[in-house]
């Protein structure tokens, strides 16, 4: 059964380990991604996302374990134009135009897209006439996206693809990704923007300390974290009093705004309302709440929800 799933997988990682000195960057990662899946790889800084992606692309060798893309060694899959990648490391010559860069990439593959088509899909047709070195960070990212797309790959691997893009740039990028993904192509992307994972991915893989700690849909990941969140406005909020309320597992106070993580929100709410609380809101766990609880991290900047919660990390 496992073998069948593996032979048909777009990505198959088995028992991957990779250390740098004392640091276990990747510590036993097993992952199967089926063709057509849109997978977000999440985790705090240093969780091992980039190291995992570098191994799966054949850019670095694991100490143990094996990576396969469409049943092939990663480098063979890349040479056949089956996989396009956009990584954080590596750059292009600043003197070349964006168009020249994409042309050079196209020449390396058996069945490339037309260069103009790749530039159009990446939303960078006009700027591609300019020197790469003169482009803004967001425009460079789009040239890199066109370079990843030009081999017309079945799998895209993207490490923080929208970093440095403005709001419009991000929206255009994800629209282009939707166009790419129609027709059953596969995308694996790492991001610190949880809203991007929530909006685009049908599966979320959460990493911490080189290991996968949760894997499922956004709804499934959120359901892993029990309880609800109560938000309210309260004068003279006392964190110690709030933490001691029945049903409350963690509390944070920002000025007069309080946020309570609750195992039993009904009991917590009755206790909270002994005081004149206003603007009370009870909500299910968000992806950010789950991220915090499952990784023990205070959450990335700019992520969905715009708030962080103080809570105990939960080992899984
Ligand atoms: N070439 C290297 N030499 C030494 N240590 C490394 C190297 N590459 C990664 N590491 C270490 O391995 C761990 C995992 O790093 P990695 O870049 O894979 O994490 P990440 O989840 O991608 O983090 P970020 O979100 O910050 O990009 C970190 O502790 C990092 O410092």
Integer count of domains: 2
Helicity range of the residues?
A: 25-40%
- What is the percentage of strand-forming residues? 25-35%
**Rg calc:** 22 Å
Cofactors and ligands: adenosine-5'-triphosphate
**What characterizes the major β-sheet?**
6 strands, mixed
Return the average pLDDT rounded to an integer: 87
Number of strands: 13
Characterize the overall form. Answer: elongated
Task: Detail the poorly predicted runs.
Answer: 298-316
The CATH class of the largest domain is identified as Alpha Beta
Give the termini separation.
Answer: 26 Å
- Helix tally? 12
Spatially, the strands of the biggest sheet line up as 5-6-7-3-8-9
Any overview of this molecule?
Residues 298-316 have low confidence and may be disordered. The chain is elongated. With 316 residues, the chain is an alpha/beta fold. It starts with a helix and ends in a 21-residue tail after the last helix. Helix 4 packs across helix 5, helix 4 (98-106) runs parallel beside helix 6 and helix 5 packs across helix 6 (137-149). It has a 6-stranded mixed sheet, with helices on both faces. The protein has helices at residues 2-7, 49-56, 74-79, 98-106, 115-121, 137-149, 167-181, 194-200, 218-224, 239-243, 265-272, 287-295, and strands at residues 11-20, 23-33, 38-42, 64-69, 83-86, 155-159, 186-190, 203-208, 211-216, 228-233, 248-254, 257-262, 278-284. It folds into 2 domains: 2-219, Rossmann fold (3-Layer(aba) Sandwich), CATH 3.40.50.300; 226-284, Alpha-Beta Plaits (2-Layer Sandwich). The protein is built from 12 helices and 13 strands. Residues 20, 23, 25, 43, 45-51 line the site of adenosine-5'-triphosphate.
